[in-house]
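Chapter summary example.
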Amino acid sequence: MNNISVIGSGTMGNGIAHIFAQNGYNVTLIDISQTALDKALLIIDKNLERQIAKDLISREDKLSTLTKITTSTDLASGVKIADLIVEAATENLDLKLDIFCEIDRNAPKHCILASNTSSISITKMASITKRSDKVIGMHFMNPVPVMKLVEVIKGYSTSSDTTNTVMELSNRLGKIPVKVNDYPGFVANRILMPMINEAIYALYENVAGVNEIDTVMKLGMAHPMGPLQLADFIGLDVCLSILRVLHEGFGNSKYAPCPLLVNMVEAGALGVKSKHGFYDYSVNPKEPTVSERFLS
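The structure predicted for these 296 residues follows.
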């Protein structure tokens, strides 16, 4: 396995491209926008510089990594020699199904089709391909170059050979793969999202303020980041999408998104990506302050 195609050049996609290229794989990073691809390359360059500053890699390693990455705005040509495709597009079922239809048509028959989805059914995506045994989930954590976990999601028809190949590949990337089965939210988000949603409910019901809720979880539960700040970091739109998948998948009211979360997303307050969420990132993103909306 030498040639990796990554679809989507956003936060997760550029991180996935980075880690594969850094480990010697030829990577084609694909997006519909050349502007987005150029931005992704700048982000990868910046993140490699951070690794150099921390003595994690050499400048030669950086140059080698960058030469391993090419970009494409044409999906069909971008996957034509791929041994593995990792889809990291927006968390939208219809979009992902369209992508899987096209990559199934254009990728080599031996190619494994993986999705970085955080909640959408691998089995559903596999069902619209002619290689359901070669469809699997590779749920990387953000930031990809730093976080060790890869949640490897085995769909209903995913073969043992495909699963073993992806587990071994994840190890070669320096990650720690954990195999899970394909149910809504898998493991990570089935546990994480209800906690975030409950923290939003605590704010919504005026149990405590933003800073107070996050401080309790950081100091009392030893979480490195409070749940409201983590929600901002993930993206409130992504949190809402995952909760809706959980709610629909299990039909249980405990997964129903908090009305405050719904309103914030509808208002465009999406967290870090929009510079406003539970915190305000517009002045100093590294030291955000509580958004004025939540100051008493």
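To summarize the output: The chain has two domains: 3-181, 188-290.
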